[in-house]
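Q: My collaborator sent me two sequences in one message, no labels, and asked for predicted structures for both. Can we handle them in order? The first one she listed is below.
A: Yes, handling them in the order given. First sequence, followed by its structure tokens:
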Amino acid sequence: MPGESFLALLDALYERDEIDLVTCRHEGSASLAAVADAKLTGRAGVVMVSRGPGASNAALGLHVASQEAIPLVLLVGQVDTPNLNRDAVQEIDTGRAFSGLIKWSTRIDSAARVPEMMARAFSVALAGTPGPVVIELPQDVLEMEAGLLSARVHGVARAEPSRAAVEQAAALVGEAERPILLVGGQCRTAEFREDLLAVSERWNVPVAATFKMQDQFPNDHRLWIGQLGFFTSPAHVGLFERADLIVAIGTRLGDLSTLGFRFPRQLPTSQPLVHVYPDPNAIGTHFHTDLPIVASAHPFLISWLDLPVVSRERAGWIEAVSKAREAVHAWPEQRIPSADVLGHAVAAVAKLFPADGIVTTDSGNFAAWVHRIFRFKPSARLLGSTCGAMGSGVPSALSASLRHPNRQVIAFCGDGGFLMTGNELATAVARRLNIKIIISNNQSYGTIRSHQEKAFPKRPWGTDLSNPDFAALARAFGAQGYTITNAAQAADIVADAMSAKGPAVVEVRSDVRQTIDRSLAAVSG
């Protein structure tokens, strides 16, 4: 998001075709788009904003990157050095302002130190538990004359597991009758997913994924358990209650990935836990850990695949896994047009969704339909906000389409989330991106409304919305606009939207009462 405080940096990017400068309409959107790009590449996302209001707006991305362990580098145009610490217009001390959100903050005070400080910033963002760093760029420093400066790249230290530790973990899996591999998002590469599948099949171990990591394992596989998160199904809870070993790989084991810190069980007896994560500070924080392994997820799997296979049949356990999976993914009304307008719209998209497509989801109950109906293959990608930050759907789709212009990108949004960052549709139109946006319009902050009605029945307040005609709004932006008002229209309208060239918005009008009731039912099994 351009600002006068870093005009020299913008000018330095002029005609630099190897760097794609994407101009957004809001700093929050830009930061969320950079987070999504980091998820797609495994490298740090980069976002540039001006000081004060710009940096404050971009704090949304800092929070998401911190919560979800995503590498992010925020470049902040700062006041010139003579006016630092004088309460100049829009001056901000990022270290103090964002303390607790970021891994590191610094200010570059001379051109000579640029290579050193930039290299360190990217290294810090990627090392250990990845996260956000902030670099302040005083306006006069950006305008300094500099000699030839060679860019530096620091190697990022990757924790490698010892062979003894991997052998011990494999032995525990070989002995267990009801083991579960719980996989997070620390590594998201295609190679990692291939090796995860190989380990699971060779050792006959079921796989569960943490929230919004549903694409880490093929969803139609006999060893797929499902993803964990809000409103986890009773079937899933039952599996974790019965498990006699949990091997957590690439997750910090936060509240969502442990069903509210319930599993691995601690009392009355602890549930055996193997925890593999590159940051030692994340291991043993909340749970007794039988085998702590400070290592990145993929090197651990690679080492495991080198060991002789010790596989058990586990027929009863695999059958229980199958029942739990089908209970979550089943949609009994899939062949019957009904009042579940959103469910039919999601099903219509899923039917046309290519195997290598990319789905982004904003936060809200509506996403339950996506997780239930879609059966992702590892060739697809799913980008969602694990921490529940609203507004991520469209900016994530923007990044996905820019990074992979030949892949179909679908963004699922609620009406509330879309109106937070949907102005980036203008960016998508300007860049001629082929993204399709499905908006669930129930004229409510549906997730908050569902919690509100559980806590204070029949007293909804502050959660109703007055919305525009989203299809007309899309056309005003220069995109295609469609509206679905009943389930019988869903298949044809979705087909038209998916075949349209360029950005398209499909508004799905649904009833808030049904959205609340059926969304909760969709994730409760």
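Q: And the one she listed second?
A: Here it is, processed independently of the first:
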Amino acid sequence: MDINVERILQSIERGDRECVQTQLDKYNSEHSQCFFFNVEAKERRKLQELEEFRQNKVRSYIPDSDSDSSDESDALILRRRLAAALIWFVQSQTQPVILKTCLSTLRILSRDRQALAPFITDSAILTLARLAGITCLCLPPTEEEEEEEEEKDSGCGSSAPDGCTHKKTDWNPSPSSDGIQCRADSNATDANSNRADANSSRADANSSQADANSSRADSLSTPEVPLAAAAVPKPSPAGRSIDTCRSKPHDMHGHLKEVVIETCYEQRQPNRAGGNHSGMLARGKRDARGEREEEGEECNDNGESWRKEAMKALCNVIYNSQRAQERASALRILTGLSEKIKNDIHSPSPPSGQFYDLRLLFLLTALRPELRQQLLQARGVSLLTAALEQCLEVHWRQAYEVVTDSTAPSISKDTTECAVEILKTLFNITYTARRRIPDEEDEAQYRHLVAMLCHCLLLSCEEEDSAEELKGHTVNLLSVLPLECLDILLSVRLSEGSRESHGINMDSVHTLLLFMERRLDRGHKLKEKLTPVLNLLTESCRAHPETRHYLKQQILPPLKEVVLRPEQGHTLRNKLVRLMTHVDTDLKHCAAELIFVLCKENVSRFVKYTGFGNAAGLLAARGLLGGHGPSPQPQYSSDSDSDTEEYRRVRDRINPVTGRVEEPQPDPMEGMSEEEREAEAISLVSMFSRLARHKIIQPMRVAADGRLAPLCGQMRNNILEEEEGEENEESCAFSHTSWAG
């Protein structure tokens, strides 16, 4: 591989395009599926770790990727030099075939986090953005400005971000022994931050030179738009390529009455007390979409193929590098990307590479907090809703009603993936919407979006996994939108085969119910997968009586068989009651809250369906152990909850703790005299007092406010009586011993 790279570098210096094309085709074919470049170093490290484990019996941390290790081999240096040379080379290329080949090589090289130094300069980022069809109004710094900043930053010896010691590599064609001169300077992370601020200020000052920049760009440039950006540092996720990463956001979770999803699709952060445990930008995996597109793909005259390659490489760089994220924000990539997506929406036929435009938009909003707010203020919700309409080819019957055709063919996997990226980005910029009271314009905008999400719930997809993913992200987004806008889910007109309750279409609610049950049955990552839909259904039941009444019929039908415990069985009620004793506190409270709301927050009815043992956790948390709440209950619609004949026959024999009929147990004190019973009771109290005195247990009582309170006073009197009794026994024993002596 080293010899091939040297030949490529020499061909680039000579300007031999045919030779470059031939060599890069071989390189791309050899490394198309390569994600760990230094295989030999990987094997050596594995053998070393295995030997250390045999000796020490302790397994050390193993990085997820070879690119996370500090590999300073000759192969890594050659990859950096090749990346720098290709970035310089593509700036002057116009032939689609060789341009696509060069960008494919850059995409492969951008997977390696250790070789990102040539990619994270302003010039490289703007070059990839221009080739991807994104117009940026900021000029890259000149060589004189770069050299001045390098002189200021000289003397800093710590490694640069992204795991590589070379902060920047510039391609300088000059006569040298190897045909390539690679300038690499090491700078500290703080120096990088200072330089980012300086570059941001210079970018603002150079914004007036946008026309000159556009004239240097090729015909891919899009119209100029006003821009605003603020660079806020944020940790970058360490991971593999994003063109091979199908980010699966975790379906989110939250607290009971609050919004389910309290954070956007960000990289995974360490769990904090009371914080969110969401897993967002997961490590990359192979991109099946890219493989499908590459099969039989040929370069076309309109340059769509190499635009996609440039966008893939840019996604990789943004995903893998914090420095690139900061510079992309300062260079206003988001605004140019938004304008490109807007132009694609209004074009007669959307380009085939729209998925990667949407993926880059998702990455920017997930990794840069200030860009979320920027996109939201730039009417990003309307833009993305329009993109979703175009993606799904939606036709409107009324203002907030989509025409649903049950005979329409299932949507393709590619269409589903584009829709998922739009939904994830929409979530990023709206996840705080429920905390604010929307104005008239925002409310109309959100209602329009909810109508689209209702359509997404009812769509059929070619693959089951794609349909599940689409519905999962739809639920996530519905969970953060204002509750007053969710009545659109119930406004769909009835049609043949629709599920209805009191004359209202319940297809969307039933779809959510089936979605929740499927995730319950899978039992995988219950907290991440279930919490959003549980909270969505709970809040919808509170806000819409029709939804609560329908779900009550489906989840809590009138009781007939009470032989088994409420948590035993295969019905939806049994599954939810089992969750009420789950080890995860958030999950069990979400499940209990849903059943409690379905019972109209009536304590006796809640205990009837779940048993007091399962219900005690929620009742204690809400101060309802006394049977009534500290505040008036919410107003719920009236519905019949009469007991069945089977339930009335056995009602008196139901154990309220277990919630089932139990056979009568023999009286343990049968045949005892009153004195024996009193002695047994005193012995029992004495044992409890001893356990409490040694802090093994803490006896509690139900206070006047319905919450648990310790039995301090009563236990103190019992403990004193017990200690006095023990002292008297010891005194009697001592006197008896003395008399006997």
